[in-house]
Amino acid sequence: MSRKAPATKAAADKPASPAGVTALERGLKLLRVLADHENVSLTELAKKSDLSKATALRLLRTLEQQGFVWRDGRQSYWLGYSLLVITRNLSLKGWLANSIQPELEMLAEKTGETASFFSMSENQRLCVAAANGWRDVGHRLNVGDTLPMTGASGEVFMSYSEGRPAQYEPLVSLSLGVRVAELASIAAPIFSSDGKLIGAVSLSGTRTRFAVKAYMDELRNHFMECLERIHASLQQ
User: Fold this and answer.
1) Strand 114-121 and strand 69-71: pairing?
2) Of 28, 85, 87, 136, which one has the fewest beta carbons inside 10 Å?
3) Global pTM?
């Protein structure tokens, strides 16, 4: 009958990590890899993290549910928006910088109003990208601002938190003086290619301007063009 070799002193002295700690360590390792190698596949992530694909996938699903990881329509992984809650000063990069930020800047330039992109953060909405308008009187937003689930973008999150409805038709939500008396906004959802709600694009300014039908019609046209380009980028 064979006998197992005695454990070495180093192995015997090393305490075993609890399962929860091991999972946390592996999850943090995935985030560290993503910090250096965004826009990578599950296979690449698992390899660079020294994890099996099954383990990496299980951890990535949890990180994605909590907003720390984002998976695009090509099944590539990026760092998620929830990291903004922790760091506040996390620089925009990857998909957010390449697809959303330029569109917000173009929309703000064309309209003079403030364009922004919100994601959900528990029961609040988190500004993860913004381009402030050039008008003297308007709304100002900063990346990292958290706001209550009110207004046009709040309505988007409340309406589409379960994802894109089967019979969905693009609609723009309008808010006039809901959170602040003279503040107005329009917003619409952004869905991934598989129908998951990614966030809400918003355009905000003064209630006085937004209440004028001709002005609102012009804003809506620019806004819808922006939405179409953002959704098209998700299919690439």
Assistant:
1) unpaired
2) 136
3) 0.65
